[in-house]
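Homework help board

Subject: predicted structure for assignment chain

Our instructor gave us this sequence and asked us to write out the predicted structure in token form, then describe one feature. I got the tokens but I'm not sure how to describe them. Can anyone check?
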Amino acid sequence: MRNFVCLGFLWLSFCFAEAKVAVYPRVVDKAITDSERYEVYVRDLESGGDWQALQVFAMEVDMDTRSKAAFAQFDMDAPVEVKVVAAEEAAGEVKIRPLSRGIKYERTGEHAITFRLDDPSKLSVEFGGNRLNNLHLFANPMETERYDATGGDDIIVWDKGTKDIFRKNCRLIYFGPGVHQPKDFPNNEISLPGNCTVYLAPGAVIKAKLRVEGVENVRILGRGMLLQPLRGVEITRSRNVLVEGITVVNPQHYTIFGGESENVTVRNVKSFSSRGWSDGIDLMCCRDWLVDDVFLRTSDDCLAFYNHRWWYWGGSRNLTVQNSILWADVAHAINVGGHGDDLSTEGELISGLTFRNIDVLNVDEDDDAYRGVMSVCCGDKNRVRDVLFEDIRVEDCEEARLIDVRVLYNPKYNREPGGTVHGVTFRNITYQGEGGDMYPMRMMGYDEHLDVRDITLENIVVNGQKMVDLSGVEVNEYVRNVQVK
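My token output:
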């Protein structure tokens, strides 16, 4: 395997052929709490090497219960064996999710299991059915780029007082292992320059928001984490941005926020939240985004794609989410169309959305206005066109609706009803519940002109039963041309 290091304009190549497993440096700081519930070890199966211990972090999930869960992560580029020891839970009943991965485990003690991983994976390991105090395990691919603190004048090694990141020749901002809490920065946020790479080394913890505003060609990379920022990464009026590999823990607001930005890729980002309005990825009037291989466990919408809100206008198009895992402790897994420009004549258009190959581990919502695993509910004159949900596996729900498609007026968030929803396809959708309350699917237009039409339901399977018609679906007279295949 080759890893590359960019020092200024010079790319250097180093060979790490012997590195099959990479364990991150341990972080010791009063801001970090280790889990007392789990121990996790990993070893390379090919060499049969010694077990390596991972640092297991404690963090809060689910704003309703404020539960303590845990997470650990490492990098791999060959088959590994993982050992999990649970201090308080017997190993008799263990579930490793997503279930679609089909991972089998062996019990090696009263409180311990082992299992094999052949490929990078994002997993929930649950002892005794305990989802609120579970272990999240992220086996990342090996980094394809590594940076260090050496080089020339175009590299900034972050310290707690650095404020000159906008000098013209800055090409790399390096955050090394340890906790970084910037001083004297407004709103505790770090504004990033254009044409720059920001590298969060394994073991780096930043207690601040990263802001990308009005710039181009920014890359945020690494295996470090953002801890309790106001927001995680904010990308507004910018283009050509990459966010890859990082973890965001308990932001006060969104994990990633996009406003009027285009040509953005978000890949292998992991996130947890436990507050109101702490959505995962929220986009306002964005274009040409790819969200790939993310894990979002949130206490509000995992994904929320809107049109106009606050200072952002222009509609949304060509947004894709794929190969990802969503877990909404509160609200929707996927939410489309809620906010828009209610003062415009025709409303804004949101179109060309694709959600494919996604595992939804759970959705819990007790307010019927927001009970959608997959929700296309437009307000504020929004017009929604050409949305595809494909290969979506939903494992369980608590007080949710699998599908919710509506033109609506929500007085809490809207000043006008939505426009129209035309052309939504649900293909290869499976739900296999475990006893949670599932409400009927729902499709509703607002009136004769603000309607829902051209909806395709293809290969929808609920608890083993294939959908053959609209029996049991709540549909009103303003819904037209629904095909069940």
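Reply (TA_rk): Your tokens look well-formed. For the description, you could write something like this. Residues 29 and 179 are 7 Å apart (CA to CA). That's the kind of observation they're looking for.
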